[in-house]
Write a structure and sequence with these properties.
Helix content of chain A: 25-40%
Number of helices of chain A: 14
Largest sheet of chain A: 8 strands, antiparallel
Strand content of chain B: 15-25%
CATH topology of the largest domain in chain A: Uridine Diphospho-n-acetylenolpyruvylglucosamine Reductase, domain 3
CATH architecture of the largest domain in chain B: 2-Layer Sandwich
Radius of gyration of chain A: 21 Å
Shape of chain B: globular
CATH class of the largest domain in chain A: Alpha Beta
Strand order of the largest sheet of chain B: 15-12-14-13-17-18-16
Number of helices of chain B: 18
Largest interface: A-B, 85 and 95 residues
Protein name (chain B): Glycolate oxidase
Radius of gyration of chain B: 23 Å
Helix content of chain B: 25-40%
Keywords (chain B): FAD, Flavoprotein, Oxidoreductase
CATH class of the largest domain in chain B: Alpha Beta
Shape of chain A: globular
Oligomer: heterodimer
Cofactor (chain B): FAD
Strand order of the largest sheet of chain A: 13-10-12-11-15-16-14-17
Largest sheet of chain B: 7 strands, antiparallel
Number of strands of chain B: 18
GO molecular function (chain B): FAD binding; oxidoreductase activity
Strand content of chain A: 15-25%
CATH architecture of the largest domain in chain A: 2-Layer Sandwich
Number of strands of chain A: 17
Pfam families (chain B): FAD-oxidase_C, FAD_binding_4
Distance between the termini of chain A: 25 Å
CATH topology of the largest domain in chain B: Uridine Diphospho-n-acetylenolpyruvylglucosamine Reductase, domain 3
């Protein structure tokens, strides 16, 4: 089903007799497999409002991300949180939508500097599981009027409601960018360098370490700076004298390409295996990967967010390391999400990190309020 | 402002309640003498006062859990309180409630520069979080103007902002994890030193829930290295429209100042009389602050001044020293005090789309004439968060009510132009009854359904956020 309006969507949901599979562009197909009738938001499309001088953008949820990026670029602006494009990694086709991006709270390397998708989402309209059209938040940057359900909707994977309209804070594209690249460091050293750079006054906007064999034979430690040209040059020199001594300087388009690679995890696209996404305390990351390997699991790692985000490629044998990974993050704090895995694997391994009992109880009860009949992507998040 | 009648059954239980609280807390942490509970009768919205039944000052998460469990068992409402600096009545007690103050819980639990996080007990004041990491040149970014006194607990409850949030965001963008106690005494951990939740973003809902979903006892906060320096520039314009256009052009140019503050003529004149900062007598004044090294500041200010000059400012004053910077900020920082010299005032907090600024200021001016009450505007111009200060005389019968009616009209105007009732102060009791102007019944219902999940008996921070009529069925049930 492909409703042409919010009202039609509300009717469909209200009249649904069974489970619905909520779909934007269908490019971020992860989560536990869901059976049901497909509801696509693609026809709810278009930019509703763009006020460049107020850094404000309002779009319908089915609008393709690419269309929005073009509209913003024409005014020298962008989505600051650098949303990942999942198509290469997941082997999916189609056009990623703004609604899908929000539903999965998709952020890229710049998350470590400016915040996540959820931090730039100012307001939502959505249809809940009872078919009611609801709104929360608005289109202004500072808003504490009532409970913040905007954050709750971001990352809820269509299980609380079907998003129909979204407002964002956007930012200007900076004049210049540069990446400092170091080679041959092990993960522990790399993450320490990233921590030092992120803990400096130099406003680092990307901090990643790619293990040996991921992008090239040698490992790479990458640090990105963005801003006015003079400021970027100043901070580049300061880091080259300090945390990034001996690093190579990569500028402009080449620098941008390095971050698209990290953002989209393209080095793992053509390689076989399951892909985990782990969010941990940055300094825990190298040890965690080492501990997994010590258990006999072959793994390759890309560390983004200064080490706080690990993309881990593992052989899809047994539970693809699920038990070990989840034990580790349960002890250290954090979570592990199975982003890529066969349907068979995703049927037996919970895609999302199982939550402690009191949190799971709250989550379950919230779902019951937003979707009393349990018809929106049921079971997708476990 | 109407408050629910106290439950006589709860009032009658006071002796038993005190006895049980004394079983889990030391005697000095249970305040039940009627003279002493008066210290908790109001927050910074002093027009409304009501001493609580009892006030408790626990010193650990375990003690908070024990208190909540007792109150839950006995059906006693609980009002969480940080430092009591709410301007919205967010910590106003009811006569049948227990005030749960976190003021004694102010320890730093962990400082981790490598991962750029600090973990504190939430009774710690905002400024003393920065104080704990200053020796390593780090800071905690959200900076509400009450930061010397206000507690992190209250910052989380209200999702507090500050002058510098254009660049650094508000509390929710800097809060990474909490330990929270639910009304039934269950302790819940959300988030931590890692980024983003693995499941639903419950932390995002807790932040800004005005103490109605749980009592947050510990928080993991993001800390940042301080910038190398900061410098403001002052600009005066002879019309609000032009000042508004200048703000918009600066934002579009890709320079992101840390703050853009706006003051209108009544506030400029009041601060000049009060603090003598040497501001020009003009219609609109902007203070724009940028950060970085000397060279970076010069580069940004070069761009900003070039934009400003295109708008024919009547004054353009660059700071060349720390003294001059302080002088530029002096008037802005004393604005509230200056208005307070003239008369009592009520501070509003609505947010509007920046493009609506000239229209909204004109309408506020018209309303000021109609109501016969003076008003001055201070404004975080970069993000549209207005602070109109309405002057009234608290000793003159009917003036407070007139002022409240004026304020309500201004806030409705904010909603009408696409904004909201409150940008950083919270709803509390103050804006509770205006919620129906911003939200349809279903929009309020889904928010109240969230409260049903966390606090099924509606015991936590009663009579705030939602209109009493809207929550009636739930509170009774």
């Amino acid at each position: 089903m492909r409703p042409e309006s919010e009202a039609e969507l509300a009717e469909i949901v209200a009249g649904a007799k069974g489970p619905l599979v909520v779909r934007g562009g269908g490019t971020r197909a992860f989560g536990a497999p869901v059976m049901g009738e497909v509801v696509e938001t693609a026809a709810l499309s278009g930019v509703v409002l763009h006020e460049p001088g107020a850094l404000t953008l309002v779009v319908k949820a089915g609008t393709p991300v690419a269309e929005v990026e073009a509209v913003l670029a024409a005014e020298g602006q962008r989505l600051p949180f650098e949303p990942m494009d999942h198509r290469a990694l997941l082997g999916t086709r189609g056009a990623p939508t703004m609604g899908g991006m929000v539903a999965a709270n998709v952020s890229g390397p710049r998350r470590v500097q400016v915040g996540a998708c959820r931090d730039f989402l100012l307001g939502v309209r959505f249809v809940d599981g009872a078919g009611r059209v609801l709104k929360n938040g608005g289109r202004v940057m500072k808003n504490v009027t009532g409970y913040d359900l905007v954050k709750l909707m971001a990352g809820s994977h269509g299980t609380l409601g079907v998003l129909t309209e979204l407002s964002f804070k956007v930012l200007a594209v900076p004049q210049a960018e540069v990446t400092l690249v170091g080679r041959g460091q092990d993960a522990a050293t790399g993450v320490r360098v990233l921590s030092a750079a992120l803990g400096s006054p130099y406003d680092v906007s990307g901090a990643a370490h790619l293990e040996a064999g991921v992008a090239e034979d040698a490992s790479q430690t990458r640090v990105r700076l963005e801003g006015l040209a003079g400021s970027v040059a100043y901070r580049r020199d300061a880091l080259l004298k300090g945390a990034c001594a001996g690093f190579e300087v990569v500028e402009g388009m080449e620098s941008a390409a390095l971050w698209r690679e990290v953002r989209d995890v393209t080095p793992f696209a053509a390689r076989e295996g399951a892909v985990w996404r782990l969010s941990v305390k940055p300094s825990d990351a190298p040890g965690l990967t080492a501990a997994v390997r010590a258990q006999g699991i072959a793994a390759q790692a890309i560390y983004d967010w200064g080490g706080g985000l690990i993309w881990l490629l593992v052989d899809e044998v047994g539970d693809a390391g699920a038990t070990i990974l989840r034990q580790q993050v349960a002890v250290l704090g954090g979570h592990a999400t199975l982003v890529r895995g066969s349907e068979a694997l995703r049927r037996v391994v919970p895609v999302f990190q199982p939550e402690p009992a009191p949190v799971a109880a709250l989550t379950r009860a919230l779902r019951g309020k937003f979707d009393p009949r349990g018809i929106l992507n049921p079971g997708l998040m476990g | 402002m109407e408050m629910p009648l106290p439950d006589p059954a709860v009032l009658a239980q006071k002796p038993r309640l005190v006895e049980r609280l004394l079983q889990v807390l030391p005697p000095e942490a249970v305040i039940h003498d009627e003279m002493e509970t008066r210290a908790y009768e109001c927050d910074a919205l002093t027009a409304y006062r009501c001493p609580p039944l009892v006030a408790v000052l626990p010193s650990s998460t375990a003690e908070v859990a024990a208190v909540l469990k007792i109150c839950h068992d006995m059906g006693v409402p609980v009002v969480p309180r940080g430092s009591g600096t709410s301007l919205a009545g967010g910590a106003l007690p009811t006569a049948d409630s227990v005030i749960l103050g976190v003021a004694r819980m102010n320890d730093v639990l962990e400082t981790d520069y490598e991962n750029r996080v600090i973990r504190v007990q939430t009774g710690r004041t905002n400024l003393s979080v920065t104080g704990a990491v200053e020796e390593e040149d780090f800071f905690y970014a959200p900076d509400p103007s009450s930061q010397l006194a206000c507690a992190i607990a209250g910052n989380i409850g209200m999702n507090s902002g500050g002058a510098h949030c254009l660049k650094y965001g508000v509390t929710t963008n800097n809060l990474m994890g909490v330990t929270m106690v639910l009304m039934d005494g269950t302790v819940v951990e959300l988030g931590g030193a890692h980024l983003d939740p693995g499941g639903l973003d419950l932390l995002g809902v807790i932040c800004g829930s005005e103490g109605q979903l749980g009592v947050v006892t510990e928080a993991t906060l993001r800390i940042l290295h301080k910038p190398e320096g900061a410098r403001p520039v002052l600009m005066g314009f002879d019309s609000n429209e032009v000042a508004g256009e200048c703000v918009s052009d600066i934002i579009r140019a890709g320079v992101l100042p840390v703050a853009i503050e706006f003051m209108d003529r009544p506030v400029i004149r009041a601060t000049e009389a009060f603090a003598g900062a040497g501001y020009p007598d003009c219609e609109a004044l902007l203070i724009v602050e940028v950060e970085g090294s000397e060279a970076e500041i010069a580069e940004q200010l070069g761009l900003i001044l070039e934009i400003a000059r295109r708008h024919n400012p009547v004054e353009l004053r660059e700071s060349t020293s720390a003294e001059e910077s302080a002088r530029i900020w002096l008037g802005r920082k004393s604005a509230f005090g200056a208005m307070g010299q003239i008369n009592d005032y009520m501070c509003l907090d609505g947010t509007i789309p920046v493009s609506q600024l000239p229209y909204v200021l004109r309408r506020i001016g018209e309303m000021s004439q109609q109501y016969g009450l003076g008003v001055g505007n201070v404004f975080h111009a970069g993000d549209g968060n207005m602070h109109p200060l309405i002057l009234f005389d608290a000793n003159k019968p009917g003036d407070l009510e007139l002022c409240e009616a004026f304020g309500a009209d201004v806030l409705k105007l904010c909603v009408e132009v696409g904004g909201c009732l409150t940008g950083e102060h919270g709803v509390g009791i103050e804006k509770r009854d205006l919620m129906v102007d911003q939200f349809a019944p279903d929009d309020l219902d889904i928010q109240m359904a969230v409260k049903d999940v966390f606090d099924p008996q509606w015991l936590l921070n009663p009579a705030k956020v939602f209109p009493l009529a809207a929550s009636l069925g739930r509170r009774a049930g």
